[in-house]
Design goal:
With 545 residues, the chain is mainly alpha-helical. The chain is built from 23 helices and four strands. A hairpin with a 2-residue loop joins strand 1 and strand 2.
Length: 545
């Protein structure tokens, strides 16, 4: 807890300083006051580091100058006076909330993507930056979210335990208190579930709610709203509804000039360039708009990934062959009525869309109609590609926020917030109770309990057991008897991909065997390389016996 608090004490003033600097340079802001500067700081640093990561690793040589510049402007512009003034107003609410955020974020990370995607992405970014064709090594690394670029830059000194989401939750409190948007306070306890690891779900939910609030509050800074919305999309493309909404709001409500789209278009270009560099196509994991780059991943592996996404849609309760035989009616029915808690979530999703549709029809408000259009477009795309609940969880927050925007006052919000905070703090502290109550919620089995040392530093896992192999010109590591490579030295390949490569008879190779920064390419294996890989897969298999 203490070390997370110290991270927040360093990072928040840095973001404020950068936000002020960027406000002065570009004469723009997302919103007024402290929270607006922090959000602009997050946006600016993330974009700058994304560009730098094409050329440099995000190590101390990047972090230290960033910290120095931010702290310099924080002190020079005397922003600490504004910060003190804000905290003094609601110190009891802010203080108690911060304590619970620090407490809950100090538990072990338990989201499986932390080990298979978040941590490895940050590790690569910190050591090398953005690597060309890294999806050839491990397909999931091809997405490398901008949020992980932001986390990687602060992971050397300021936030070595990767708790940037806890810092963001504290920033979210600033916004709620400044804007007196008390309904958003009710979302904070739920978001605690994402605070133990750098999950991009937390920032996109928070940022989308902030943009929604700004639109519903008639913010006219459309250039920044659109750019920030594209930034949220760049963090997680399933948030496509947000730039659609801000575009509709800018064009049809505020009648803005097309120039307001320039900043957002630049962000989108950087996002596409990053994906082409790492994955070979503009939007991960969709293999559309082929530029013919030599480092794009093998098509058979992309097909296998697509099939896996469909299996995950049905929670692996049906085989791919069975799913292919479903009629449209069976497809919908079987998805809605899966075994376990995911069926409840799927049904709630459809019911929520129906309720929101009726609400939109009754209100006959242009902004709410645009919100509905944006959500329906996003929902259709998710249902078509991979209808996993984690891809539409943000819709629940959106619908609740819009429908209750004018109906929850401060008193009601604080009561709901208090009840939810007790529940979710208890859930994080005693996950075994939830495992007994909801056996189908498998994530609870991965959650670690409280340890006294958490009061000083957050709990983290250490494994560091791995095999080392060589196939062709690539020497690589594979975690021993564990499917993920969260602390395996780079270059590391997940064992599942090793077997996939063996099946399709291709394997990643270094473009320049003397310089890993030059990237990876997939190549058809020679007979000798097949023998090398066979030895590796035999050793991986035998290690489980």
């Amino acid at each position: 807890m203490l070390l997370i608090f110290l991270s927040a004490v360093i990072v928040i003033p840095v973001l404020l300083g950068w936000g002020k600097l960027l406000e002065d340079i570009f004469k723009t802001r997302l919103c007024e006051e402290i929270s607006g500067k922090i959000l602009l700081g997050i946006f600016g640093i993330s974009i700058i580091w994304t560009v730098l990561a094409f050329f440099l690793p995000l190590n101390l040589f990047i972090e230290i100058p960033t910290l120095f510049i931010g702290l310099f402007y924080f002190v020079k512009e005397k922003i600490y006076h504004d910060l003190h003034s804000l905290l003094r107003k609601k110190y009891w609410l802010f203080g108690s909330s911060c304590f619970l955020i620090l407490f809950c974020s100090s538990f072990y990370p338990y989201i499986l993507d932390h080990f298979g995607y978040y941590f490895p992405s940050i590790q690569w970014l910190r050591e090398y930056g953005i690597i060309k064709g890294i999806s050839n090594l491990d397909l999931v690394l091809g997405q490398m979210s901008i949020w992980h670029i932001f986390q990687a830059g602060f992971s050397n000194f300021s936030d070595p335990f990767l708790r940037i989401n806890a810092v963001l939750l504290i920033v979210y409190l600033f916004y709620i208190i400044e804007k007196k948007s008390w309904i958003q306070l009710c979302f904070v306890p739920i978001l605690l579930l994402f605070s133990q690891s750098p999950s991009p779900d937390l920032p996109v939910i928070i940022f989308s709610l902030i943009v929604l609030n700004e639109i519903l509050s008639a913010n006219k800074n459309t250039s920044m709203l659109f750019a920030f919305s594209v930034f949220v999309f760049a963090i997680k493309p399933t948030m496509i509804w947000l730039p659609i909404l801000t575009f509709l709001y800018s064009v049809f409500i505020l009648k803005s000039h097309f120039k307001v789209l320039i900043a957002g278009s630049i962000v989108f270009f950087i996002f596409c360039l990053k994906n082409i560099w790492t994955f070979g196509y503009p939007i991960f994991p969709i293999s559309i708009i082929d530029f013919g780059v030599s480092w794009k991943p093998n098509q058979e592996l992309l097909k296998s990934s697509s099939e896996y996404a469909i299996l995950k849609t049905f929670d692996n309760q049906y085989s791919y062959e069975e799913i292919q035989k479903f009629s449209p009616f069976e497809y919908a029915k079987n998805w809605l009525f899966l075994d376990g808690i995911k069926s409840v979530i799927n049904c709630l999703f459809i019911v929520s869309l129906l309720v929101f549709t009726v609400f939109t029809f009754i209100k006959r408000n242009k902004i709410i109609t645009f919100i509905w259009v944006s959500v329906i477009v996003k929902s259709i795309l998710v249902l078509l590609f991979s209808a996993q609940y984690r891809f539409f969880i943000d819709v629940f927050f959106l619908i609740i926020f819009v429908m209750l925007f004018n109906h929850l006052n401060k008193k009601k919000s604080i009561i709901i917030y208090s009840i939810l905070m007790i529940f979710f703090t208890g859930f994080i502290t005693f996950p075994s109770l939830i495992a007994k109550i909801i056996p189908s919620y498998r994530m609870s089995s991965y959650m670690g309990g409280f340890k006294l040392e958490q009061l000083y530093k957050p709990s983290t896992y250490e494994y560091e057991k791995y095999h080392t192999f060589k196939v062709g010109n690539l020497r690589f590591n594979v975690s021993q008897k564990y499917p993920f490579n969260f602390d395996t030295p780079t270059p590391a390949i997940s064992e599942s991909f090793v077997f996939d490569y063996q099946k399709v008879e291709i394997f990643p190779q270094l473009i320049d065997e003397n310089n890993i920064k030059k990237g990876f390419i997939s190549k058809k294996m020679t007979e000798n390389e097949k023998k090398q890989l066979k030895k590796a897969t035999d050793k991986i298999t035998n290690s489980y016996k």
